[in-house]
Amino acid sequence: MSQQAVFSRWQFVLKQFSRRLWVRASAIGAIGVLAAVLATVAERFVPFDIPGSIKADSVDTILNIIASSMLAVTTFSLSAMTSAYGSATSNVTPRATKLLIEDTVTQNVLSTFVGSFLYGIVGIVVLQTGAYGDRGRVILFVVTIGVIALIVFQLLRWIDHLTTLGRVGETTSRVEDAAEGAIEARRQNPYLGGNPLPDRKGADLRGMTPVMAGAIGYVQHIDMQALSTLAERIDSDIHMLVNPGAFVYPDSVVAYLASSLAVKDDALAPEDALRRAVTIGNERDFDQDPRFGLVVLSETAQRALSPAVNDPGTAIDVIGRATRLLSRWAEPIEQQEPQFPRVFVPALTAEDLFEDAFMTIARDGAAQVEVQLRLQKSLAALARLGGADFRTAARRQAALALSRAEKALPIEADLKRLRDDLSG
User: Fold this and answer.
1) Residue 238: which domain range?
2) Within a 10 A sphere around the Cβ of 123, how many other Cβ atoms?
3) pTM
4) 383 and 250, same structural domain?
5) CATH code for the domain of 236
6) 180 located within any domain
7) Which of 6, 111, 314, 409 could tie 304 with a disulfide, CB 3.0–4.6 Å?
8) What angle do CA 48, 51, 56 make, to 5 degrees?
9) pLDDT tens, 344-399?
10) What is the DSSP string of 194-216?
11) What is the average pLDDT value for the chain, to the nearest integer?
């Protein structure tokens, strides 16, 4: 069972919290401060004399260099990082900047610089108070050499990372990786660990209790474990009507309870407990939402096809990436027993995935024969994979793309080439 698809609401919140830059910077900064302070008491626990001695002025000079240089490097790095975010927003899509902000290399490097700066500042202050003895200064000097080595390593790593940060190709690769992780997690758990929601007509829902969203926003996460616990508590099946990525309103029905039971022992009302298990936010999230990654890739191609950018090569690259992702979705997988059998979740349809990946590219690139040729080839390849629904969705998108091209291609020769390629 893939854990990415079924982690709890609190794990989801903690994961989102840990991805923030200030959290990692604060943690490493605290380690730097702690290292400088502990050196004052470390000599008490060293059972032997350390050969040699270090003058206070020598250590003070090194700490001053670290503090002043790290402040300048951190300021420069923040400027470079902000420029990379602006470049990704302008040349890719604003939705992709979230992945850049959560980039672990960037966060580790900046956190190291901040932590080293704080280490230097605190070390200088404590050193001036005379709190370090002879052995304490030696220990502080050894730790400082280690900090310098860490700074050099991270600085070289940062220089290499800056050559690609915010570039179109590197950013689209990040989006593809995020989408691939979500697709693989959902492929392993097509119903988030629950059972498939059967097709239901209005008559089938009579007598069931609807649960409204109670908020406006995107469904970011569904806590399946909490829903399963709730289903057992009230002895009722839960029928979810939404998937992560759905946009809901206060009166949108997100689920139905097969029965409405009285609350016992001051427990949370079933409707409130169900709403608490569904996290709604202002933005979509990549983790449980495979469609979002495809949408962001499609937006990248849209921007590349705009008259202001005019970069069909990026659109062709995105078509290739989307083809790889959908080919993963088409791969067969062994059926597993549901982990949460009393929770029913709607399936992701191939039709929706294909629309997210190709519909806007076909529309905005309808007048460019090179884009249409690659699109038709990719859809033809996908039409040979997967099940009947998958192949039907691929052929439908190919037919729609051809219809748009027939109305938009400027000359008959391009249209003839496209038709010849399809017939061949």
Assistant:
1) 193-281
2) 29
3) 0.84
4) no
5) 3.90.1170.30
6) no
7) 314
8) 105
9) 999 999 999 999 999 999 999 999 999 999 999 999 999 999 999 999 999 999 99
10) SEEPPP--GGGGTT-EEEE--S-
11) 86
